[in-house]
Amino acid sequence: PPRIFRDRTWGRGVPREGRGARVRGHDAARGAAEWGCGRRLRTRARPRFAGRMVKLVLQHRPDSGYRDEPDRHYNFPPRYRRDLEQGAGDWALYYEPVKVREGGRGYFAVARIERIGPNPDREGELRAWIEPGSYLDFVRPVARLRPDGRPWESALAGADGRPQTGGLAQSAVRRLPEGEFAAILAAGLPAEAVAAGATEGLAEAAAPFRRPVVAQLTNRPLRDAVFRDRVLAAYGYRCAVSELGLRNGGGAPEVQAAHIRPVARQGSDSVRNGLALSATLHWMFDRGLISVAEDHRILVSRNKVPPEVAGRLIRPEGRIFLPADRRDWPHPENLRWHRENVYGQLEAAGPPPWG
Prior knowledge:
It contains 8 helices and 15 strands. Strand 3 (34-36) and strand 4 form a beta hairpin. Residues 1-11, 13-45 and 197-212 have low confidence and may be disordered.
């Protein structure tokens, strides 16, 4: 049996015996027998792939000690180095297990791995950097099992098609055949949801998204539609600054999805890089007339915004309205970037929208 040793952190998806134990020197993903939780676990052999690059599933836990930033980087132990190196340059799906504090979302996002190297923040770990602008949240998180009860990943199913536990199912990095990648992607980015979330100018671009392929993941209009859908849903279709739920005569939401850090300046399409804002407040935010402090206080450029305008547009609490799910809250680094690079530094072009 493999050697069991004690550690303060639980290894990424590695079977354990008691709290904090990690199995070492034994690769469950290769179909070998593993020991953990006091019983022997047998796993199916991993699927074989032709060529060098492969699609991957990356397991992410918000409460993990690895401190991942899914739209920026993914940290992992050396045992997964070979898989991540072969996945560099290709797309990966993020998976959140059921047993997390907030409730696991299953497959919840897609991103392209740019490169692999040592983790600069922690000795002994490696890091996979995510290609800027490639991360995209799913419109609908995809549960671990299909509606018929079978796993989306065939390698996690037994001979009878039923889901297996332990072994490969607990591995933090798993290889994924192209067909299964496409099937999960189609479930997470369904054509009707993307089209429904698109603005009038984007609906036509989103319509052909019937069978997701890698080339469509870089389609800017489609990504804008998905980003808008996720951000507005996270904020309950209300403006984060005024908390008003504005809708037009047809019942469609009037709030817009604003990137905190623009994509053109290395910002991502993660919901954590977005704010739901009314058209006026979106204009003000993009021009540095307002920003958000680390404690979510709303900052106003007092020499450019009249007090009566600020009082009319900003919610009385003086702090932004936040999503119910903390995983959707704006990332502090994105807010810091806006304060340091936009707030109070840009000249507004044209007359202000308040007259």
